[in-house]
Amino acid sequence: ARPHPARWPGAARPARPRPVRAPARAASVAGCDRTPKAFELRLWSDSYAFRITSDPTPPRALEPVTYRIVVQDKKTGQPIETGEGRIFATSVDRANTNDGLKKEKELGTYSGRLFFATTGDWQAALQFRREKNPQMPLERVDWTQTIHPASEPGS
Asked: Tell me, what's the pLDDT at 124?
């Protein structure tokens, strides 16, 4: 049997791979984090960019769900401070839920609460306009929101 070429006299030794430790530590720390990561839904209309999160995540039936919506001008990225709008959803069984958006302290941030009576996929939408002017058109974005079963009592 012939020796491996790297073992021949005068042959260069193959470089030994060195373990990469920083990513392994980062992965192990991230693996210990038991808090759910905020899922951010990003949607765009003709004029606005929306970033939508829900609390709790994932949304559950028979529990109030607070949606936090950050609205920015699509072209400039500037937050929209004087807007108004509403958030609403309809289930396959034609159950409805809706709420007007409330201005929050953070720049360009609004919130609304929905109550989902059943689990499953709901067709959700957001309507928004830059100013509280009825002549200004509302722009709409739509998405499908999956609602999970309610939490067990005491959990």
From this structure: 98
